[in-house]
């Protein structure tokens, strides 16, 4: 069993976790693009109770299975009396974060011994790429929880086959029902890769895999059977186009992968875990020890990275499942790092002071009509059209969070543990500032409420109740929120030939790139999202 890490009390850890988790979960509308279409799917399940076929603005949306949408529909129906519908649905992201934390802590405890689960959690929430995505209404938070549960199963496989198999199977099922074949495929590849090591060619590990297979299959098979019974065409659309086709790039879904995309993304996205992970691998190769503890996360990280790099499409969001195994590898590196140079603590403190000062400078420019030169260009580009608004309650909340984090910063910790702790505290401070002081301006630039609410049918509005509205080029996020804010479900010219007989046409374009023959028409109404300089919406009267 490994030596115990630096003792970390529960009170500061709980304070850090709450200050990281709670800000950003509520207080804003669904944001483009992922939150917007996800919210449309959640609303459909909450209203209809149909968990078999995810539906967006009246059309089947077979990109992802329904687990996250179901969980968000539950939280929306449970908390909508106290919160707005988007905020109530977004609480599901907090729930899946908690599941991920428990799975990661169990994995770290199984690999390194008691006390290490807390530090693995500190490493995970300290990664630069996690805070924004972990607080969004997206299926990837459930996928992250599935990977953490799967990691826990692989980490405990040699010592507790029954519970390990159940956790591995549950993780694979959660990953499958969140985003399809990618998650369970990566976990299965990692589980098979571990058989290359003699320690895993034992009956206990084979028992773990058998239990995992039995635990993973029932719920995915139930949903697939229900989907096939409902519509074989939709089943094949989900399986062929949205799994294999998307991976191979034979369908026009998702952004195409640039050369070396993850090699360029992970150096900032996975800080500070990847340097510690590389140190753990170097130390294990040099000393020929610690391999049993790092093999499960190494297998998961390696197989997942190989699958992501082989896929035809790529986004930084897809790298989220790499963060838990990298946190466990970093835990191994942290244990052997010893006392870091004193200058690292000084550099970290100076960097945090500089970033906090800039964050507060931008917050002041967003709250007061100040012409602050260092922030002027960036603010004008990111928050176009924003009018400064001073909200004292938000400043008081940030001040309280900063005071609590200052107490966390001063916790007596030794060696490299103090450096990592302060890194995570500093990142949480920056996130609290963004999620409180910047949130109104961020919401202004990312929401569609004002843009689409103006189209709501009414006696004095352009669009009268009962009018038929066709659309062309209208994206999935826009269709979902147009139905939510304006109550409009358009007939799309892309799939409905009779939509041309409608009274109105809503056209979405980039800038002023209007396709013929509509470039010869004069629009009745032209609008755009408040903070968006690219998207244009034009409403044409066809009669």
Estimate nothing, just give the exact number of structural domains. Answer: 3
Give the end-to-end Cα distance, rounded to a whole number of Å: 78 Å
Specify the number of helices. 23
Written as H for each helix and E for each strand, in order along the chain, the element string is: HHEEHHHHHHHHHHHHHHHHHHHHEHEEEE
**What share of residues are in beta strands?**
under 5%
Mean model confidence by pLDDT: 91
Class from secondary-structure proportions: mainly alpha
Main sheet characteristics: 5 strands, mixed
Proportion of helical residues: 55-70%
Total DSSP E strands: 7
Strand arrangement across the biggest beta sheet: 4-3-5-7-6
Q: Oligomeric status of the shown chains? A: single chain
Shape: globular
Poorly predicted residue ranges: none
Please tell me how large the radius of gyration is.
Answer: 25 Å
Membrane topology: Multi-pass membrane protein
Keywords: Cell membrane, Glycosyltransferase, Membrane, Transferase, Transmembrane, Transmembrane helix
Transmembrane segments: 95-112, 141-159, 165-192, 204-225, 261-282, 294-312, 318-334, 346-370, 390-408, 420-439
Subcellular location: Cell membrane
């Amino acid at each position: 069993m490994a030596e115990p890490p630096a003792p970390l009390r529960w009170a500061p850890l709980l304070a850090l976790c709450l200050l990281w988790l709670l800000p950003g979960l509520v207080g804003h509308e669904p944001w483009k693009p992922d939150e917007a279409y996800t919210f449309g799917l959640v609303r459909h399940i909450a209203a209809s109770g149909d968990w078999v076929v995810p539906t967006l603005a009246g059309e089947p949306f077979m990109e992802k299975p329904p687990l996250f949408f179901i969980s968000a529909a539950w939280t929306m129906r449970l908390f909508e009396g106290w919160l707005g519908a988007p905020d109530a649905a977004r609480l599901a992201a907090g729930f899946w974060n908690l599941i991920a934390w428990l799975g990661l802590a169990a994995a770290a405890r199984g690999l390194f011994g008691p006390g290490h689960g807390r530090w693995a959690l500190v490493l995970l929430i300290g990664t630069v790429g996690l805070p924004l995505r972990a607080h969004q209404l997206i299926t990837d938070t459930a996928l992250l929880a599935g990977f953490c549960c799967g990691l826990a199963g692989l980490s405990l496989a040699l010592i507790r086959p029954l519970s390990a198999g159940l956790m591995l199977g549950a993780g694979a099922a959660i990953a499958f029902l969140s985003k399809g074949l990618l998650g369970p495929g990566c976990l299965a590849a990692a589980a098979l890769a571990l058989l290359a090591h003699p320690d895993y060619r034992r009956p206990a590990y084979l028992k773990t895999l058998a239990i995992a297979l039995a635990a993973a299959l029932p719920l995915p098979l139930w949903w697939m059977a229900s989907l096939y019974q409902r519509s074989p065409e939709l089943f094949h659309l989900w399986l062929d186009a949205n799994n294999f086709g998307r991976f191979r790039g034979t369908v026009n879904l998702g952004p195409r992968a640039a050369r070396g995309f993850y090699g360029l993304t992970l150096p900032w996205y996975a800080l500070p875990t990847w340097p510690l992970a590389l140190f753990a691998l170097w130390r294990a190769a040099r000393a020929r020890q610690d391999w049993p503890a790092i093999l499960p996360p190494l297998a998961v990280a390696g197989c997942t990275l190989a699958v992501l790099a082989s896929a035809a499409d790529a986004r930084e969001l897809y790298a989220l499942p790499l963060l838990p195994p990298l946190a466990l590898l970093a835990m191994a590196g942290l244990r052997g790092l010893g006392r870091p140079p004193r200058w690292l603590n000084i550099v970290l403190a100076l960097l945090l002071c500089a970033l906090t000062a800039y964050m507060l400078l931008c917050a002041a420019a967003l709250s007061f009509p100040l012409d602050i030169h260092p922030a002027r260009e960036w603010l004008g580009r990111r928050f176009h059209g924003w009018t400064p608004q001073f909200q004292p309650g938000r400043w008081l909340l940030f001040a309280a969070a900063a005071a609590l984090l200052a107490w966390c910063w001063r916790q007596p910790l030794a060696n490299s543990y103090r450096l990592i702790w302060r890194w995570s505290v500093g990142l949480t401070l920056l996130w609290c500032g963004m999620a409180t002081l910047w949130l109104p301006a961020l919401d202004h630039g990312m929401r569609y409420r004002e843009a689409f609410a103006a189209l709501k049918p009414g006696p004095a509005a352009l669009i009268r109740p009962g009018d038929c509205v066709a659309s062309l080029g209208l994206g999935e996020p826009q269709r979902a929120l147009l139905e939510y804010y304006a109550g409009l479900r358009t007939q799309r010219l892309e799939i409905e030939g009779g939509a041309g007989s409608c009274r109105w046409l809503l056209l979405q374009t980039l800038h002023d790139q209007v396709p013929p023959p509509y470039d010869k028409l004069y629009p009745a109404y032209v609008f755009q999202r408040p903070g968006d300089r690219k998207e244009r919406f034009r409403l044409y009267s066809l009669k």
